[in-house]
Amino acid sequence: MVFACSDSRVSPTMILNFQPGEAFMVRNIANMVPPFDQVRYTGVGAILEYGITALKIPNIVVIGHSRCGGIQRLMTHPEDGSHPL
């Protein structure tokens, strides 16, 4: 399973030299794998559960890239969870 950024300038399949069907690809803004929460971020939790339990995926890779706008935005977000002005 590979978590990668949804940025169209980056192709994890090409970078990792995977052929179709070789890897379960998950792409989202800033290649996020947030902490588990019953209410929020259920998509990532569902992906992990399906990949691990149904597909028996043995490895999880999280890859990022330079000049990622999602990461830049995340780094400007206050640690207390409030929204920046």
Automatic annotation (TrEMBL):
Catalytic activity: hydrogencarbonate + H(+) = CO2 + H2O
Protein name: Carbonic anhydrase
Cofactor(s) essential for the protein: Zn(2+)
Enzyme's top EC category: lyase
SMART domains reported in the protein's UniProt record: Pro_CA
Main function: Reversible hydration of carbon dioxide.
Keyword vocabulary terms for this entry: Lyase, Metal-binding, Zinc
Family annotation (Pfam families): Pro_CA
Enzyme Commission number: 4.2.1.1
Stored InterPro entries: Carbonic_anhydrase (IPR001765), Carbonic_anhydrase_CS (IPR015892), Carbonic_anhydrase_sf (IPR036874)
Stated family: Belongs to the beta-class carbonic anhydrase family.
GO biological process: carbon utilization
Lineage: Eukaryota, Viridiplantae, Streptophyta, Embryophyta, Tracheophyta
Protein species of origin: Senna tora
A GO molecular function held by the record: carbonate dehydratase activity
